[in-house]
Amino acid sequence: MSQDPEKRRREALQQQLIDCQAYVTAYEDEELMRRPELRPMRLALELIKPEIAQKDNHVHSTVVVFGSARTPTPEDAARQLNDARQQAAANPDDPAARAALERARKGVEHASYYQTAREFSRIVSSACQIRGECDYVVVTGGGPGIMEAGNRGAFDVGAKSIGLNIKLPFEQRPNPYITPELCFDFRYFGIRKMHFLMRARALVAFPGGFGTLDELFEALTLIQTHKVAKIPVVLVGRAFWERIVNFPALAEEGVISPEDLALMEYAEEAQEIWDIIARFYENQDGGPYRI
Question: Is 158 left (phi over 0), alpha (psi -120 to 50) or beta?
């Protein structure tokens, strides 16, 4: 028996409705979620998702490790220097080859920061991730360089660490040492920076570029204005920081207070960084964590 034409027409119309984008359940509608009007919802989701994951993984507090994504491992730095020397020897009159050699020499110098960040992360992770507790968990930007070193040090001792990646015009893949359940990808810098500080009990800044400076100055501003509780801020590599940022000059010009200079301390070695953090909390009655 042939089907009623009217019934076929009704079913066809119903299927058109079901196939229409408007019929997709709102929270499953990816096209909707990408619209500019949904930006507040995307911001909220980026705030909530990592928060839930950290709670599920019993992360109570963190230590933030900032620094350049371009900092090479010692092995890579040595290899790059060797290649640059060969190119410079083969092209002694080439300014580009000479410039590349100088950059490679600087890379070898900065590779020591990779080692220091990795060792610091080993120390803090070994000291604080014990008996199933997840205190002072190292959190980085999730990429290469100093970020990789921070995650790698925790990985070396079988501890958890967090990576907060960010979508960029150029590809940034998460480094392989992040705890998989704590590896996140952000669209918005603002929400990512909130997550850096929401559980932070210390901030350790290694030499870096625009991104490192941005994150450091935002943290200092929030501490200065009491938007977040005072935490130790450790700048690693005093010679670098004093060359790049003249903090005393800011006080001399009257644009910050002289006491604001005490918001940060300098360190060179991994154990020295940890000792500064430990000393800070030993002097805090009822601090968040007794080291």
Answer: left
Model confidence at 94, pLDDT cuts 50, 70, 90, reads confident
Per-residue pLDDT reduced to its tens digit, 35-63: 999 999 999 999 999 999 999 999 999 99
| pLDDT single digits (tens) 133-170 | 799 999 999 999 999 999 999 999 999 999 999 988 77
End-to-end CA distance of the chain: give it in Å, rounded.
Answer: 82
How far, in Å, are 5, 17, 24, 119, 124 from residue 12 at the CA level? 11, 9, 18, 66, 64
What is the distance between the alpha carbons of residues 18 and 81, in angstroms, rounded to a whole number?
A: 62
> Domains in the chain, start-ordered, CATH in brackets?
46-73+112-282 (3.40.50.450)
SS3 sequence of the chain? CCCCHHHHHHHHHHHHHHHCHHHCCHHHCHHHHCCHHHHHHHHHHHHHHHHHHHHHCCECCEEEEECCCCCCCHHHHHHHHHHHHHHHHHCCCCHHHHHHHHHHHHHHHHHHHHHHHHHHHHHHHHHHCCCCCECCEEEECCCCCHHHHHHHHHHHCCCCEEEEEECCCCCCCCCCCCCHHHEEEECCHHHHHHHHHHCEEEEEECCCCHHHHHHHHHHHHHHHCCCCCCCCEEEECHHHHHHHCCHHHHHHCCCCCHHHHHHCEEECCHHHHHHHHHHHHHCCCCCCCCC
C-alpha 47/C-alpha 53 separation (Å) is 11
